[in-house]
Write a structure and sequence with these properties.
Layout (H helix, E strand, L loop, with lengths): L1 H30 L2 H27 L13 H30 L6 H25 L6 H30 L4 H28 L9 H9 L11 E6 L2 E5 L2
Main location: membrane
Keywords: Ion transport, Membrane, Transmembrane, Transmembrane helix, Transport
Organism: Priestia megaterium
Length: about 250
């Protein structure tokens, strides 16, 4: 099933991300690279987020009860919301650290930094491919948030490679914090989309592409129906919409 595919894709991405997180953290300390350290910090958030997304899918599979009449589907949306907030926090921390380094640029072992970042980039691309191949990154907001985390890691690795190249050729050590800020802004842009969509669902907004007036007209055209009022259309979780009216 699609949900099983989502779980498999997340598990593969989790294992790869956790391994690269350790590699980039140790590599960042060794090379004194903020770009690598910030990316490893982002990966720490991602490892937690991917694990949370897996737990969310497990919760969503639990049956409904008398107290939880819709089941635990909303846990997936809560996980996506948490992931979006986590991305904002991580990006803010990276920008702050980058500002400190702009004031006081530090030397970086650019060659080793580029090598480690290249390994990280390849691993991130494999993780992203796994999520796209196994899971529903377009239709499931929880999985999409995890996918964006992985893409953010890939951007971080690309940024580290570019920064390392500039430092190696021109000695521009300020490139390290500048690239980190650029990557952080791209991460924030993606995080905002996930955050806004999650809040829209939790506020029980109408599903995207659904015309409230058109639905009302269709219902009123049913034989025997005189009037439709108190029409509510909302999303329980990604791919599961609901409707009620009188």
């Amino acid at each position: 099933t699609q949900r099983e595919g989502n779980k498999k894709g997340l598990l593969i991405a989790l294992i790869i991300t956790a391994g690269i997180m350790v590699l980039e953290f140790v590599g960042g300390l060794f090379t004194n690279s903020l770009a690598l350290l910030s990316d490893s910090g982002h990966m720490l958030s991602d490892t937690s987020s991917l694990a949370l997304s897996l737990v969310a899918i497990w919760f969503a599979n639990r049956a409904a009860s008398a107290k939880k009449t819709y089941g635990y589907y909303r846990f997936e949306i809560l996980a996506a919301l948490f992931n979006g907030v986590a991305l904002f926090v991580i990006a803010g921390f990276i920008i702050y650290e980058a500002y400190q380094r702009v004031l006081e640029p530090q030397s970086v072992a650019s060659g080793s930094m580029m090598l480690i970042a290249t390994v990280g980039l390849l691993a991130n691309l494999i993780s992203a491919w796994s999520l796209m191949r196994q899971g529903d990154v377009k239709g499931n907001v929880n999985l999409r948030s995890a996918y964006l985390h992985v893409l953010g890691d890939a951007l971080g690795s690309i940024g580290a490679i570019v920064a390392g190249f500039l430092m190696m050729l021109f000695g521009w050590y300020i490139a390290d914090p500048i690239i980190s800020v650029v990557v952080s802004v791209l991460i924030l842009k993606s995080a905002w989309g996930v955050l806004a969509h999650s809040v829209h669902i939790l506020m029980e907004g109408s599903p995207e592409g659904v015309d409230h007036s058109e639905i009302k007209n269709l219902l009123e055209n049913i034989e025997g129906v005189k009037d439709v009022h108190d029409l509510h259309i909302w999303t329980i979780t990604s791919g599961l919409d609901s409707l009620s009216c009188h």
